[in-house]
Amino acid sequence: MPALLQGTVLQTGAGQPRLDKTGKQYAVNYLKPGYMNKQLILIFLFFSIFTARTGAQLITMSNKCYDRVKLGNKQLDSTNFKSALSTFDAVLANCTTKDAKEQGNLGRARALNGLKRYDDAIANASASITASKKSNVMAYYTRSFAYKKTGKLDSARADLEQVTALTAKNKDVKARATMFAQLADVDASQGMLPEARDNLAKAIQIDPNNPSFYVQRGDLAARQNNYGEAFTDYDRAVSMGKADADMYQIRTNARIRQMQHKYNTTNASDLARKMTATEKEQVCKELNKASSLGMRNMQLDLFSTMICK
């Protein structure tokens, strides 16, 4: 039997970054090597929340255009920059509303940055800023990244001063908590686990009633093979109302990873032979609950046929 679950990936929560108190200090940090790549994703997520909550952006795109923007952003998140560029080219060619121009140019600029075409990225980010009437923070941040890469540090600092000024307007406690959680997510993806835990602690301190933060902290614990801590946090998330199919798929993945780590194998046949009756019961409990809630996963279904007899 092949190692069906070798590619299983634990899911994580969401959130955002720490911002410095002054524009000057922020600009200094920004110019440090590696700082910009990390923050670029964070600012985008934060200001998606910011514009949605403040009403700064009225979505007027058709469903088809909205779906194209959504697809392009998904491609950006997957670092599939060439496909994202094509998608946002289609947005700009076929969608004529102000927000379509704003989001299309922003998406194109982000894709161009990913492709290291920085001068073109500056042009599209500038078009997004114009379409937003100088209110799109992600466009400023995207342009500042491109400015930095082309050695235009004064222009990069000027854009970051705009970022700082616009972020100061956000008084949303939940959005700030989400910022720290997303920073933790990025920290974790870079292997910076102590920093990730620190930022998650801040997110939870600010907004202790968000179950997604406990799921994310549980994922961190599972990643470090601390499954007792992981399931304490997962159980807390369930008790707070996070009891859907996604939650139980996360729990299932964690139980399977626990067994893979214990028995040093990802082969389902080997696990079926080595796992104790109690361990099988634990895994099958999560699998059955996820399935009852509508989870559809061929790999996990195959695993279930071998373990849950």
Our measurement of the CA-to-CA distance between the termini, rounded to an integer number of angstroms, reads 17 Å
Mean pLDDT metric: 80
Shape: elongated
**Total number of distinct structural domains:** 2
Number of strands: 0
Low-pLDDT runs of 5+ residues are: 1-38, 45-58
Radius of gyration: 22 Å
Which structural class matches the secondary elements?
A: mainly alpha
Question: What can you see in these coordinates?
Answer:
There is one protein chain. The chain has 309 residues and is an all-alpha fold. The protein has helices at 23-30, 35-54, 63-77, 81-94, 98-114, 118-131, 137-149, 153-167, 173-189, 193-206, 211-223, 227-239, 245-263, 268-274, 277-292, 298-307. The chain folds into 2 domains: 23-167, Serine Threonine Protein Phosphatase 5, Tetratricopeptide repeat (Alpha Horseshoe); 204-307, Serine Threonine Protein Phosphatase 5, Tetratricopeptide repeat. Residues 1-38 and 45-58 have low confidence and may be disordered. The relative contact order is 0.12. Helices cover 73% and strands 0% of the residues.
Keywords, separated by commas or semicolons:
single chain; Serine Threonine Protein Phosphatase 5, Tetratricopeptide repeat; 309 residues; elongated; 73% helix; mainly alpha; disordered N terminus; 2 domains
